[in-house]
Specification:
114 residues; 3 domains; single chain; mainly alpha
């Protein structure tokens, strides 16, 4: 308002009262909005499908993650692979032994045939 215009005390009081009423209404609306936003039950109801999908996906990932870690640490695959590798090494050692034996026998046969 221009400073040249003088307001009467009644006009100032009326303006203050209007501002007080408007502020009260704004505060009431704000309380209602805050109450709606912080009510987690209504938020869950409003987003129930999305939350169920997210929970299912989270459970799937969590179960797979835990299963994967335990599988790596205590898994049958690893033990099975180690056993298979040990068996293969044992078979290779036996094959080498048999080759040496065969070479010795071949050498004996060769010396006897001369």
């Amino acid at each position: 308002m221009p400073s040249s215009t003088k307001r009467t005390p009644e006009e100032i009081r009326a303006s203050i009262e209007e501002n007080r009423v408007a502020l009260g209404e704004s505060l009431g609306k704000l309380r209602e909005e805050v109450s709606d936003l912080t009510d987690w039950r209504s938020q869950v109801r409003a987003n129930q499908e999305t939350l169920m999908v997210a929970a299912a996906a989270g459970g799937f990932v969590l179960a797979g993650g835990i299963g994967g870690v335990f599988g790596l640490l205590f898994g049958r695959r690893r033990r099975k692979a180690r056993r298979g590798q040990a068996r293969a090494e044992k078979i290779l050692a036996e094959a080498r032994k048999a080759e040496r034996k065969a070479a010795k026998l071949a050498a004996k046969v060769k010396t006897k045939s001369r």
